[in-house]
Amino acid sequence: MQTRGYGAHWAYANLTESNTVTDVTPPRANATWTQLIRDPKHGALPLLLLVLTTTSGVIDAVSILGLGRVFVANMTGNIVFIGFAIAAVPGFSLAASVAALGGFLIGAFIGGTMVDAFGKHRGLLLRNACSLECVLVAVALVVTTTADDDKGRGAKVAVAALCAVAMGIQNTAARRIAVPDLTTTVLTMTLTGIAADVRKSGVATITRRVLAVLTMFAGAVAGALLVLHTRLAWALALALFLLAVVTAAAALLSRRPAAWQDG
User: Fold this and answer.
1) By C-alpha distance, which of 230, 112, 83 is closest to 170?
2) Which of 85, 109, 112, 149 lies deepest, with the highest CB count within 10 Å?
3) For a pLDDT cut of 90, what percent of the chain falls above it?
4) CA distance 36 to 180
């Protein structure tokens, strides 16, 4: 009787242990995608920042292909372009590049002011930053559609400056929101992380980094196709639409308190 009791107890213990092991099986692969929308730490911010990364790709396609080889989102490339323009390399606009650099710094200053005011609530910071970006890109769109051929060069410089101010605001806001690997404008460190940390990074981290690259790529392709086969205004209209989507989503998500909002 004691032997059978011990055996039954042993069998029950093993069954319990087996059930416990079953309960801690690794999460399904689609959990990685769920984190883009319902991440306990960041909420839907990763998804919204990926949309902004797409926007950056569109706007840089506009600036490089339509405004005289100038970066408005990536100031590393723009500094190089200014050097090319000073060296009198054909096809590079010194006026547009300098206007973009100055506009970006002004945008970063404005963004810093917004961070001071709204940085403790990441949802409101994103909403307000994107709202101001919408205004700037809308003005750039109006300038593009109303400029005549005689004022084309001046209009391009103005559009470059306006878009650069918007990108400076976006870059500063994304820096404060601080979702890892989602700066929305620069991919150098993201690509470095993909290659350097591939052996020790989790699936969620690698997925986020790869999506940042793919969304920037998709935005650049879409922007280039619109600039080359339609009008510059259509590419700016796409950027404005994406910014409006992020603004509306951030506003809706900020209506109820949530842990991810805390800065």
Assistant:
1) 112
2) 85
3) 61
4) 12
69 Rama sector, left if φ>0, alpha if ψ -120 to 50, beta otherwise: left
CA dihedral 22, 27, 28, 29 (to 10 degrees): -150
Phi, psi (rounded to 5 degrees) for 69 = 50, 65
Q: How far apart are CA 251 and CA 47, in angstroms?
A: 14
pLDDT band at 31 (very low <50, low <70, confident <90, very high): low
pTM confidence score: 0.84
- The residue with greater pLDDT, 26 or 130, is 130
Tokens of 65: 């292909």
Nearest to 136 by CA among 115, 106, 113, 112: 106
CA dist 65 and 81 (Å) reads: 13
Q: Return the biggest CA–CA distance within the chain.
A: 104
The alpha carbon torsion through 201, 205, 208, 209 (nearest 10 deg) reads -40
Res 235 pLDDT > 50: yes
Task: Say if residues 225 and 62 touch (Cβ distance below 8 Å).
Answer: no
Q: Convert 18-85 into a string of H (helix), E (strand) and C (coil).
A: HHHHHHCCCCCCCHHHHHHHHECCCECHHHHHHHHHHHHHHHHHHHHHHCCCCCCCCHHHHHHHHHHH
Structure tokens at 47: 């998804």
Backbone angles phi and psi of 262, in degrees to 5: -65, 130
Helix (H, G, I), strand (E, B) or coil at 116: helix
Query: Taking residues 83-91, what's their average pLDDT?
Result: 92
